[in-house]
Amino acid sequence: MSRAWMAAALTLLLSPAALAQDCSVNKILGQVYGPSHKADLELSTCKVWPARPGITLVAAGLNRDGDYQVGSEDLELLLVDTATSRVIARRLEENRLAYDAIQVGKLTFDTAPYKLNDGVLAFGLRIGRHNNSGGYPFSETSLTLYIAGKSGLEPVLEDLLVKSLSGETDPVCQGRYEESVATLALGSATSHGLHSLAVTQRISTYREVMGTSDTCMPEDEKTTQHRYTLTFNGHHYPVPRELKALTP
């Protein structure tokens, strides 16, 4: 490999466009809340918005009360200036990250191009939750879409279930499970100025048995598919019960 090629590659890696995709949530939270902040760094996250790289998306878990088993945290969403960390918009959702038997596992920004119309671009926040039961495993991931409205950040789609797993099993690999995965796309219809949302949900049910090589193997798998169209009603996209995730 030539030195010239290596220098060019290093320049590309360190270019402002490349560096703009990085963010430090601890640094941002320190600038927003002060250096002695007590935000939950294990839950907090940030991401430069690819469609608008001058804006960084921040989700902060703010401690309320409780211990490692049962408790509650607020969720604050922030839009900050990527260069200065100056807050552009914010939204506080009290008790959003409550936990007990079901724990909050991870927050992830979804920056797929949710262009609801020519002037409205949404971003998503995915919240993962799970239990710690070996015999009755459960996990799910929800998606909420937000837009920057006249009164700040506003959710337009709340707690859509995009992934889940539940079932029951025992130590000798005899179990039954149901797994659900949903995908979201822009629809062709419009209502109150925003595109509809097309949701495709695949539900798989199966059981596990001990295979010939002493490993758990799925058996009798059955998959069904369902399609939904979510229409904006002027305030939000109502989510049918079959697609609604758990809420605290």
What's the short story on this structure?
This protein is mainly β and about 250 residues long.
Q: Which band does the percent of strand residues land in?
A: over 45%
**SSE string, helices as H and strands as E:** HHHEEEEEEEEEEE
Walk across the major sheet and give the strand order.
5-6-7-8-9-10-11
Weakly predicted, low-confidence segments: 1-20
Fold topology:
Elements lengths: L2 H11 L2 H4 L5 H9 L5 E10 L6 E12 L4 E11 L5 E7 L9 E15 L2 E11 L7 E12 L2 E17 L6 E17 L2 E17 L5 E15 L18
Antiparallel strand pairs: 1-2, 2-3, 3-4, 5-6, 6-7, 7-8, 8-9, 9-10, 10-11
What are its keywords?
248 residues; mainly beta; 2 domains; seven-stranded antiparallel sheet; four-stranded antiparallel sheet; 58% strand
Q: What does this molecule look like?
A:
- It is a single chain.
- With 248 residues, this protein is mainly beta.
- The chain folds into 2 domains: 1-95, no CATH class; 101-248, no CATH class.
- The chain has helices at residues 3-13, 16-19, 25-33; strands spanning 39-48, 55-66, 71-81, 87-93, 103-117, 120-130, 138-149, 152-168, 175-191, 194-210, 216-230.
- It has a 7-stranded antiparallel beta sheet with strand order 5-6-7-8-9-10-11, with no helix packed on it. It has a 4-stranded antiparallel beta sheet with strand order 1-2-3-4, covered by helices on one side.
- A hairpin with a 6-residue loop joins strand 1 (39-48) and strand 2 (55-66).
- The longest helix has 11 residues, at 3-13.
- The radius of gyration is 21 Å and the shape is globular.
- Mean pLDDT is 86; it is low at 1-20.
